[in-house]
């Protein structure tokens, strides 16, 4: 122990270097974890977090009272996690392999640049682009150009919730697939080209090469990425679920996720008890999933585990 | 795993690509498919540009279109003219982006550096300190109550900067870069030459971290540029509204109308005229998004490198 203190004193310069970031995390990450105690309190803004009285388990009873809402937002959060992860991973791989196999390298580079750009556009801006495609009056591109072309009827996208799982998935693909494929491309770039040469000599065609060499090489990275993403199962991008959907009440049944719900509460005189119980549930389940996924990764591929 | 080199720059592969003298028909099919996907990514941007320069009457009559009946500069002009707020918001966004990115890079690289000192025992605890926030978060509500109730940071620019200035993944990327790409012998040599710990970091290590700083810095800068949620929650005064909040606010008006089903159609029609015109909205989007589109291609190489570096644990 004495060794530890003298070592720390010897390294006091490094302590000083680490201190500012340490404090920022303490003030802005750790303190808000502490703030979760309001899930066990009858929160009163005038009394503050410490002054409010304890009321466990009343807030959690609200989850049962409002179980329709609670189940809907939990179900949506998890459903979109699965859709986005499965569709996204699949397309990331398809795109990475396509660009990898593409012989027109200069054209490929330009295309890749364009494909990555959407990820840098905020959903606040994207929501207007989506609106320009889906609005009814004035007609968006879908209602004004595409549907008439195929003789389809005008659709009120912003009124009907059932369209939105499709719409949000497409927007999510547009936003993230080009970016998501970059990581897989770096794995493909690391594959020894002699493997392909050898396969060619053995008479394997392109598809056989992809199936027997490329895909198996991607499996470890895909597994790790999928497992690590499980930790985020309770989180969602409010940009997509709050702004792109314009937070329209008619769409909530299929579009509101936990984060979108909490944001909506926060901006409109929150029901503190219900919201606090919801965020507490979200944080605890998130922690559990994170530990679980990291545990599995650590067993399978220790070099990729987060901790 | 994961060589840092992108496939497309690899000379050996370029040579192999040349060896295929004639690309087979499959390559042209692939070209066509990739082109389709590229268009899917690109066409929405084109629509923003075209709508921003369309005549409002054309959009009202024909709807949004890639081929408007009439073109007009009015929207762009009025954006730059009604633009006092836009100018202020541009200033706010540039301020939080620049200050946030520099503060963040400084804090995070200092932290990452101390994590890589081999004989520093405290680093184990410091490593755990950054891992825990990744596992467990307090969420928006408790953050809001603490930041406003205790720190009184509502309606300040600090709240848009500091909570986003330090991120676990960024520190891991920087830590990995220092551990893998900057030989510790350099630091040892500097020390033998009489440089103190601070000087070693600021004059030897920090300058050598440039590629990783560029990668992390670009990601942070886009994050700050695009930040809207904190602004929506915390910012009230007009002179502190960043660009993205301006966009969200334009949307709020439309949203309010669409959410209130009780408004009779006649009133809707009257209020409809007061909504920001479609073209003006699109012109605002263009002005907000434009800088990223212009800057991104110059940073792509660093950013791809950073993404790849981050996937390798140190």
Describe what you observe in this structure.
The complex is a heterodimer of chains A (307) and B (314). In chain A, helix 6 crosses helix 9 (164-189). A two-stranded antiparallel sheet of chain A has the order 1-2. In chain A, 72% of the residues lie in helices and 1% in strands. The relative contact order of chain A is 0.12. Chain A has 15 helices and two strands. With 314 residues, chain B is mainly alpha-helical. Helix content of chain B is 74%, strand content 0%. Chain B has 16 helices and no strands. In chain B, helix 5 (84-115) crosses helix 9. The interface between A and B is large, with 112 and 121 residues.
List keywords for this structure.
heterodimer; A: mainly alpha; two-stranded antiparallel ribbon; globular; B: mainly alpha; disordered N terminus
Question: What's the overall average pLDDT of chain A, rounded?
Answer: 92
The rounded distance between the terminal residues' Cα atoms of chain A is: 25 Å
**What is the ordering of alpha helices and beta strands of chain B?**
HHHHHHHHHHHHHHHH
Subunit arrangement of the protein: heterodimer
Shape of chain A: globular
Average pLDDT score of chain B? 84
Summarize the structure.
Chain A is mainly α.
Topology:
The complex is a heterodimer of chains A (307) and B (314).
Chain A: H1 2-10, H2 12-34, E1 41-42, H3 48-51, E2 53-54, H4 58-65, H5 67-101, H6 105-116, H7 123-134, H8 141-149, H9 164-189, H10 193-201, H11 206-230, H12 238-244, H13 252-255, H14 258-267, H15 272-300
Antiparallel strand pairs in A: 1-2
Helix pairs in contact in A: 4-5, 4-15, 5-9, 5-11, 6-9, 7-12, 11-15, 14-15
Chain B: H1 11-19, H2 25-52, H3 56-62, H4 74-81, H5 84-115, H6 123-135, H7 139-150, H8 158-161, H9 168-181, H10 184-192, H11 197-208, H12 210-226, H13 229-234, H14 243-259, H15 265-274, H16 278-310
């Amino acid at each position: 122990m004495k060794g530890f203190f003298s070592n720390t004193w010897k390294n006091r310069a490094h302590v000083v270097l680490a201190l500012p970031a340490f404090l920022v995390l303490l003030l802005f990450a750790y303190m808000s974890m502490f703030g979760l105690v309001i899930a066990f309190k009858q929160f009163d803004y005038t009394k503050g977090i410490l002054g409010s009285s304890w009321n466990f388990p009343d807030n959690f009873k609200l989850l049962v009272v409002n179980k329709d809402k609670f189940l809907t937002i939990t179900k949506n959060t998890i459903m979109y996690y699965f859709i986005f992860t499965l569709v996204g991973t699949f397309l990331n791989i398809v795109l990475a392999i396509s660009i990898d196999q593409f012989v027109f390298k200069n054209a490929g580079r330009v295309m890749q640049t364009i494909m990555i750009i959407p990820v840098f556009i905020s959903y606040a801006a994207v929501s207007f682009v989506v609106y320009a495609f889906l609005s009814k009056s004035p007609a968006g591109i879908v209602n004004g150009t595409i549907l008439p072309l195929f003789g389809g009827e005008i659709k009120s996208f912003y009124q009907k919730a059932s369209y939105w799982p499709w719409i949000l998935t497409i927007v999510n693909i547009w936003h993230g697939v080009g970016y998501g494929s970059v990581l897989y491309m770096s794995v493909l770039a690391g594959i020894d080209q002699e493997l392909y040469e050898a396969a060619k000599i053995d008479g394997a065609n392109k598809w056989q090469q992809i199936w027997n060499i490329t895909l198996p090489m991607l499996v470890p990275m895909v597994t790790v990425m999928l497992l690590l993403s499980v930790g985020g199962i309770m989180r969602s991008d409010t940009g997509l679920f709050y702004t792109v959907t314009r937070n329209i009440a008619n769409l909530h049944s299929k579009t509101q996720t936990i984060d979108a719900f909490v944001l909506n509460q926060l901006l409109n005189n929150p029901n503190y008890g219900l919201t606090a119980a919801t965020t507490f549930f979200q944080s605890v389940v998130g922690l559990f999933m994170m530990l679980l996924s990291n545990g599995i990764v650590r067993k399978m591929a220790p070099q990729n585990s987060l901790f | 795993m994961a060589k840092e080199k992108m496939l497309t720059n690899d000379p050996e592969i370029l040579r192999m690509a040349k060896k295929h003298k004639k690309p087979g028909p499959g390559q042209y099919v692939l070209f066509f498919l990739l082109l389709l996907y590229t268009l899917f990514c690109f066409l929405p941007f084109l629509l923003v540009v075209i709508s921003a320069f369309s005549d409002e009457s054309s959009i009202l009559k024909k709807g949004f279109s890639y081929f408007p009946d009439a073109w007009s500069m009015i929207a762009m002009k009025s954006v730059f003219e009604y633009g006092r707020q836009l100018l202020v918001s541009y200033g706010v966004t540039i301020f939080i982006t620049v200050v946030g990115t520099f503060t963040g890079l400084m804090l995070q690289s200092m932290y990452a550096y101390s994590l890589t000192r081999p004989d520093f025992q405290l680093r184990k605890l410091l490593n755990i300190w950054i891992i825990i926030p990744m596992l467990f978060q307090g969420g928006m509500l408790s953050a809001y109550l603490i930041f406003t109730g205790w720190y009184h940071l509502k309606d300040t620019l600090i709240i848009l900067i500091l909570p986003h200035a330090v991120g676990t993944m960024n520190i891991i990327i920087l830590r990995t870069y220092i551990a893998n790409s900057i030989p510790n012998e350099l630091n040892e040599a500097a020390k033998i030459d009489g440089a103190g710990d601070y000087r070693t970091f600021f004059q030897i290590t920090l300058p050598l971290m440039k590629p990783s700083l560029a990668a992390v810095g670009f990601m942070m800068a886009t994050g700050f540029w695009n930040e809207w949620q904190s602004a929506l929650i915390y910012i009230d005064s007009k002179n502190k509204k960043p660009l993205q909040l301006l966009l969200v606010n334009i949307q709020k008006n439309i949203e309010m109308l669409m959410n209130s089903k009780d408004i009779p159609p006649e009133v809707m029609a009257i209020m409809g005229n007061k909504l920001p015109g479609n073209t003006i909205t699109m012109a605002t989007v263009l002005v907000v998004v434009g800088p990223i589109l212009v800057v991104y291609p110059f940073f792509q190489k660093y950013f791809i490198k950073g993404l790849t570096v981050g996937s390798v644990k140190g």
